[in-house]
Amino acid sequence: MINRIIAYAGATEPAAARDFYVRLLGLEEAMTDPVLTLRSPDNPAAQVIVLPDGDTPAPSFGVDVGDPAAVDAIHDAARRAGRRIVYPLTDEPWGVRRFFVEDPGGTVVNVLAHLPVRPPR
């Protein structure tokens, strides 16, 4: 199941990008580290992630598949199909499980799902 598709934008000046998306388009900040994530106040699933200049490899867009197990299954299927894995399967410290895969046309896609929230110790 696909929960959402997330657009990515590059930025040589993150402050200018924030200003553009917030002041002009009315998005709000959802996260600032490790990347700037902006979302619609009316539909939080509608997001733009601003990637810092030189972020390598930079995906063109992200596909949130809703469940970390689905990320694993898609990763296994991509490997079996001989697809190029551009960024390895990783649990990121900000709470997503993801990997980047190249589609047949060379577009890099971030396949991700949020990890379950663990209660503090």
TrEMBL record:
Q: Where is the signal peptide?
A: none
Q: Which Pfam families match?
A: Glyoxalase (PF00903)
User: Where does the record place the VOC domain?
Assistant: 1-114
**Protein name stated in the entry:** Catechol 2,3-dioxygenase-like lactoylglutathione lyase family enzyme
Species, as recorded: Amycolatopsis viridis
